[in-house]
């Protein structure tokens, strides 16, 4: 049987705190596809690795 990789999921509130943005900004990023997320019931969970990748992306309007 294949190994299931260990993934740490964060709540929208945890992502917002890490990125220093509002919860609504995180929801907008999720709905636009900018930040991948998995829906569990009525809430979203975001893989921690995707949050780190998003924070390391260059900003489009920086300059």
Walk me through what this model shows.
With 63 residues, the protein is of the alpha+beta class. The chain is built from three helices and three strands; from the N terminus they run βααββα. It has helices at 12-19, 23-32, 48-56; strands at 9-11, 38-40, 43-47. The chain has a three-stranded antiparallel beta sheet with strand order 1-3-2. A hairpin with a 2-residue loop joins strand 2 (38-40) and strand 3 (43-47). Helix 1 packs across helix 2 (23-32). The longest helix has 10 residues, at 23-32. It is globular and about 45 Å long. The protein starts with 8 loop residues before the first strand and ends in a 7-residue tail after the last helix.
Share in β-strands:
15-25%
Query: What is the string of helix and strand elements?
Result: EHHEEH
Specify the helix fraction band.
40-55%
Which regions have little confidence, pLDDT < 50, spanning 5+ residues? none
Separation of termini?
50 Å
Strand order of the largest sheet: 1-3-2
Tell me, briefly, the overall form: globular
**Secondary structure tally, helices:** 3
Number of strands: 3
Taking the sheet with the most strands, its summary is: 3 strands, antiparallel
Quaternary structure of the protein: single chain
Roughly what is the average pLDDT, rounded to an integer? 92
Rg, nearest Å: 13 Å
Summing up helix and strand content along with how strands pair, one would put the structural category as: alpha+beta
